[in-house]
Design brief:
Elements lengths: L11 H52 L6 E6 L12 E8 L4 E5 L4 E5 L7 E4 L2 E9 L10 E10 L2 E10 L6
Antiparallel strand pairs: 1-2, 2-3, 2-6, 3-4, 4-5, 6-7, 7-8
Length: 173
């Protein structure tokens, strides 16, 4: 059996096999491409949330560096918890150096400002919850020597926690 080259074109089986290879090629590389796009978006969300959590902690640490105590604190239910002990999810906290931090629950943003009326400066996005515990654990927020801060940040399906402790500077007058 000899095959001769002719000018008739491709046979039907050659066209079908060619299309099968082309479809297989696009399906394989397309699925790999879409999987990596999904992974890159997930990593981008993790980096964004982590950056915002670290930015809030840095501003918090810089802000309360010279403070000596907490003068005002509200829980998520708008209750004053200054004389309470234990861990609470907070909405707003104020220090004796007139620095205030506020968590905006509707937009998951964290704000800070010099006075209670000016808590408008954006500190970080994607902050879902702020938990505070006075240190040592059995003390109240009014007479604590420091605070343990736990932030929860989330974006899309990514959720991260960041926890640290801040201690106040006690200057004898």
């Amino acid at each position: 059996m000899r095959f001769k080259k002719s000018n008739k074109g491709l046979s039907l089986i050659e066209v079908i096999i060619g299309w099968m290879f082309l479809v297989f090629f696009f399906l394989f590389f397309g699925s790999v491409f879409f999987r990596y796009i999904k992974e890159f978006r997930k990593l981008e969300d993790e980096i964004t949330v982590q950056y915002n959590l670290e930015e809030v902690m840095e501003r918090w640490g810089r802000g309360i560096y010279e403070s000596q105590k907490i003068i005002d604190i509200e829980s998520i239910n708008r209750e004053n918890i200054l004389y309470q002990s234990g861990s609470y999810q907070i909405r707003m906290i104020g220090f004796d150096n007139k620095l205030y931090f506020r968590h905006g629950q509707t937009l998951n943003r964290f704000y800070y400002g010099e006075k209670k009326a000016y808590i408008n400066t954006l500190c970080g996005d994607y902050i879902e919850a702020v938990f505070l515990t006075p240190l040592p654990e059995e003390s109240t927020f009014l007479n604590c020597k420091g605070i343990k801060v736990r932030l929860k940040g989330s974006k899309n399906k990514t959720s991260l926690f960041l926890e640290t402790e801040f201690y106040f500077r006690f200057v004898e007058e």
